[in-house]
Amino acid sequence: MEVILLERVTKLGQMGETVKVRDGYARNYLLPLGKALRANAANKARFESERATLEARNLERKSEAQKVAESLDGKSFIVVRSAGETGQMYGSVAARDIVEILGNEGFTIARNQVELNNPIKAIGLHKVELHLHAEVTVSIELNVARSAEEAERQSKGEDLTSAEAIYGVDEDALRPEDFFNPEAEYEDEDENA
Fold first, then answer.
1. DSSP secondary structure string for all residues of 94-148
2. Continuous segment of H or E residues that includes residue 80
3. HAMAP family this protein is in (predicted)?
């Protein structure tokens, strides 16, 4: 199906372009969300008559997104979750959790604006991309930790998932031969009894 884009759509085209897309994509996404019109003579004339209004609305949305991006750029948010000693979380941090965290800080972000291919399942510092507008992207940092104190230590650069942090031993000192030596002679406890 051919459609006329009413706004810039990532990986598809700019406002005003006529592009060919799959029918389902047009019917289920582009048309209901008002991002496109079917490409026919009547809609082309309608688009040309409304072009100035659409461009002004797009510019207004972009400037609002840039304001939000400036206040979010480089910010770090602490997420406290329970996790095991090795740093594997019992749950995960998904896009809806990120939206809720940002909402608590006063930012209104939709779930589809969070670029998170896989949920976060380990403690540590994680970069997350937010697509606030088709032309405005911002990166934030999530500090996922077991407690606020651990989050503070992580933000200073400490690795809480290393063997030294977990066991108090340098990782280089943890060699298998230190724990089991097949050539060593062991006394059988039953023989001494």
1. -HHHHHHHHHHTT----GGGEE-SS-EEESEEEEEEEEEETTEEEEEEEEEESSH
2. strand 76-80
3. Ribosomal_bL9 (MF_00503)
Which one-letter amino acid corresponds to residue 9? Answer: V
Instruction: Say how far apart CA 160 and CA 55 lie, in whole Å.
Output: 49
- Per domain, the residue ranges of the chain are 2-63, 73-170
Q: What are phi and psi of 44, to 5 degrees?
A: -65, -40
pLDDT tens digits, 88-118: 899 899 999 999 999 999 888 889 889 988 8
Determine the Cα–Cα distance for residues 69 and 63; give it in Å rounded to an integer: 10
What is d(CA 18, CA 48) in angstroms, rounded to the nearest whole number? 13
Per-residue burial over 133-153, b = 16 or more CB atoms within 10 Å of its CB, e = otherwise? bbebebebebbbbbeeebbee
Query: pLDDT-derived band of residue 155, with 50, 70 and 90 as boundaries?
Result: confident
Residue 113 neighbours by CB under 8 Å, 6+ apart:
130, 131, 132
Per CATH, which fold does 2-63 belong to? Ribosomal Protein L9; domain 1 (3.40.5)
The widest CA-to-CA distance across the chain, in whole angstroms, is: 100
- CATH class, domain 73-170, is alpha beta
Summarised one tens digit per residue, pLDDT across range 8-21 is 888 898 888 999 99
